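User: Can you help me understand a structure? I only have the sequence.
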Amino acid sequence: MREAVAERWCEDVTLEMHNAGGTAVRSGTVTFGTHIIGALGIDWGTVRSTEDLPVPIAAGARAERTWKVCVEAWRVPLGMHVETRDVSVDWA
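Assistant: Let's start by predicting it. Here is the structure, written out as tokens:
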């Protein structure tokens, strides 16, 4: 789930993770692909960022976390905004 914040170059991104495996997840990362969107809806580029997972996540458990995902302010001129459209998780 995405939610706008006061800065046009940031947004809150909430993920619910479910460990369907038989052992606890002890480490891992989540990678966000944040798109820079122009006033006419044109996608001007994507900036990737990586954060640590909220671990440990026990076997069969669910975890929810909200990250404030931002790009550099200069990348998002007035009239543009960001949308985090791509999310991938690397369970280690």
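Now, to help you interpret it: Residues 17 and 63 are 5 Å apart (CA to CA). The chain has a mean pLDDT of 95. Let me know which part you'd like to focus on.
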